[in-house]
Amino acid sequence: MTLDTATPLVDHSEPITADDVMTVVASRELRDGSVCFVGIGLPSLAANLARRTHAPNLVLIYESGTIGAKPSTPPLSIGDGELAETADAVVSVPEIFSYWLQSGRVDIGFLGAAQIDRFGNINTTVVGSYVSPSVRLPGAGGAPEIASNSREVIVVIRQSTRTFVEHLDFMTSVGYLDGGRSRERLGLRGRGPTAVITDLGVLRPDPVSRELVLTSVHHGVDVATVIDRTGWPLGGFDAHRNRTAHVP
Fold first, then answer.
1. Does the reported pTM lie above 0.85?
2. Among the options 63, 95, 184, 211, which is catalytic?
3. Structural domains of the chain, ranges and CATH numbers in brackets
4. CA angle 36, 95, 102 (to 5 degrees)
């Protein structure tokens, strides 16, 4: 797969997958001229799709230190040479975090998660007890800094009762903590998660309680399925029952 302008954006010979839908929906969250802190995988595909379509001036920053990367093929890792070769500049990792992220120069940060709760807090550390987990995950990496300092955060995650949980096994990165104004009381710079994009639909925080509520379902998905795959009583779906995000 390539990302240059000669490549068709839609391959009609292959069926559309859930990852395809998530990529397109995530790309639509990105605004032209924004600075976006990108991870490998689906976030990178979404960001580069946006750059090729409605947001040609989107500035992509990868954790390895590349600024303004314009890859023609999906990078295999943050150390992929394609990122450095196509970047406007390459700086040190400390500079990426201190000058760009911690000083508030990143507009949008992408995050994944193994678990997420109703207030957008995420776990990427362990499943089960921290001392004796059933699964030890890759860990925090730069996620806590991205969650704390990006002006807004987009979380991309597949939805099930294993991932959308009532209580996290470990809180790696803060969303809205306990809801309400608890994030503001912590003094965190960024707004927190503004969208959680799943293989079923999109959730956004309630403006007052900050609890994640369902705002749209993807084409072909019914609201009952989303409810069944959420580990807490899900709100918001009555007002948005007929609103779908259609991806042709």
1. yes
2. 63
3. 18-245 (3.40.1080.10)
4. 60
